[in-house]
Write a structure and sequence with these properties.
- The chain is mainly beta.
- Helix content is about 5%, strand content about 45%.
- A hairpin with a 4-residue loop joins strand 19 and strand 20.
- The longest helix is centred in the middle third of the chain and has 9 residues.
- The relative contact order is 0.18.
């Protein structure tokens, strides 16, 4: 696996679709108009404006059979990219990521992402809480079925509501974001241990009362890491689901010892995120 930009399937990039800015000026409502291409639609959502830190969202709808990617796309694909620099009265925007689904990438591997629809919550910090704020987003993402099509979209939305009509949907989306956790937490589902097996292999033991439908994903400390998706292995210990991956995709010249890895542990009804320094 390359440690550079994630690989794309051989059938990728049939066309690039450019979605235009909405009507001139931000709209005084809680969602921007849908920006549509042939297989997806995207818009911004605004939560209530009640202080310097607000909740917003990027809503994506996908046609049946089509998918889009998580922040780490897996064996192939391209992650979404967001530029909020044209916004008014916005200090910072943090994109929060719901737990992804694993699916075949059409090239013999697996990708990580979303199907049907997803809302990516946004944590937005205003420069001045008492001044008007407009979020403008340049968004690059890909939608994939048997082929993948890159899409470029632009959207803008003013945050004006004291009580937004989108608060419930944004709260529901926030619930799908993996919760912070620590190795060894006394919970029914947790990472029990992370250890090295030789120079290349990493073994992760997960404590799970029911191992069905549990997946583990790993990310390096910087985007130029391209670690493989951990694979399930047999475990002789009851209540333990074991995963393993090779230290492949480490950037050239970088020693992995002590690297800050991020693990995302996903079960059918919950998900957790662990920050672990590699032994």
């Amino acid at each position: 696996m390359s440690a550079l930009v994630p690989r794309l399937p051989a059938t990728l990039l049939a066309a690039v679709v450019l979605l235009s800015w909405p009507c001139a000026g931000a709209r005084a409502q809680d969602s921007s108009p849908w920006q549509r291409d042939g297989h997806s639609a995207i818009r911004l959502l605004a939560g209530s404006r009640s202080g310097p830190v607000m909740l917003g969202g990027i809503a994506i709808q996908l046609q049946p059979g089509w998918k889009t990617y998580w922040r780490t796309p897996g064996d192939s694909g391209v992650p979404p990219r967001f530029d909020f620099s044209k916004s008014d009265n916005v200090e910072a925007v943090t994109v929060l990521w719901p737990a992804p689904t694993k699916f075949d990438d059409g090239a013999g591997g697996h990708s990580l992402g979303y199907h049907d629809q997803v809302v990516l919550p946004l944590r937005i910090v205003a420069k001045s809480a008492d001044k008007p704020m407009t979020l403008r987003a340049d968004i690059s993402y890909a939608v994939c079925e048997k082929i993948c099509i890159p899409v470029e979209a632009k959207a803008e939305l003013a945050f004006t509501s004291v009580a937004s009509t989108e608060d419930a949907s944004l709260s529901a989306a926030l619930d799908t974001v993996p919760k912070p956790a620590n190795v060894g937490d006394a919970t029914p589902l947790t990472i029990r241990s992370v250890r090295r097996d030789g120079k290349k292999d990493v073994i992760v033991d997960v404590a799970a009362a029911d191992p069905r439908g549990i997946h583990l994903y790993v990310e390096g400390p910087t985007p130029d890491w391209a670690l493989p998706i951990p694979q399930a292995r047999d475990s002789d210990t009851p209540g333990i689901k074991r995963f393993a991956f090779e230290l492949d995709g480490v950037p050239p010249g970088v020693k992995p010892d002590g690297a800050a890895l991020k693990f995302t542990l996903v079960a059918p009804d919950k998900a957790y995120e662990f920050n672990v320094n590699l032994p």
